[in-house]
Amino acid sequence: MSEREQSFGTGRLLMGVTWAILLLGLWLWGREATGVHQGFSAPATGDMAAAGRPPDAELPPMAKPLGKAEPLRVDIPVIKVQAPVVARGLDPQGAIEPPPFDQPGVVGWYAAGVKPGAAGTALFVGHVDTETGPGVFYKLSSLRPGAAVRVARDDNRVAEFTIEDVQVLPRERFDARQAYGPRQPGRAELRLITCGGVYDRASHAYSANVVVSAYLTGEGS
Questions:
Q1: Where are the bilayer-spanning segments (predicted)?
Q2: Which H or E element spans position 108?
Q3: What is the DSSP letter of 118?
């Protein structure tokens, strides 16, 4: 094997390890990235999008990925979310740092990952609730396939995504790569992630993650 091939193989291995650590961190984030639950109703587990979805529902074709640009704002009209997006990194446990608890209306974007609208899977996280009330993604599990998600970017373009499924995935038998990895190679995809399931006051953790999957279907202004 040539030196170049060895280097490429090592690079692929390191990328795989980094991706695995990130996905484990996302799972851990679903356990602890929320404040004290105040009794708001939590979603059940399972494929929340399947209920009421016609078996022959048609979604629009995917759009060609856009160039790279950072997100400024995310709008989800059907659940009346209009929120600023802030860049976030990883905490010491390898989980995406959520927005500060004193900013429950802000969405965090994993800035070391894919930019929304570019090819690959961009990751957005937000609180379902905090000590003071519902968070920005409190109604995330009520979304259904076909709903629109718009992301305003710093290149004055708006990436328009269409939701294809909504899942509330329990921690038991959790497959992080299936939840957060790309669904189709070459697509521009978006994941919206928050806590879900049942809140355990003793452990201060939720039993599941809400994972909304969307893909780029157009461009606005």
A1: 12-30
A2: strand 107-110
A3: B
The whole-model pTM stands at 0.77
User: Domains plus CATH for the chain?
Assistant: 3-220 (2.40.260.10)
Q: Name the residue with tokens 């157009």.
A: 218
Q: Does residue 142 register a pLDDT over 70? A: yes
Distances (CA, A) of 43 to 49, 146, 156, 200: 12, 20, 35, 14
Q: What CA–CA distance (Å, rounded) separates 166 from 168? A: 7
Mean pLDDT score across all residues of the chain:
77
Exposed/middle/buried for 10, CB within 10 Å: 0-12, 13-18, 19+? exposed
User: Which residue matches tokens 């969405």?
Assistant: 107
Tokens of 128: 């379902």
* DSSP 8-state code for residue 79: G
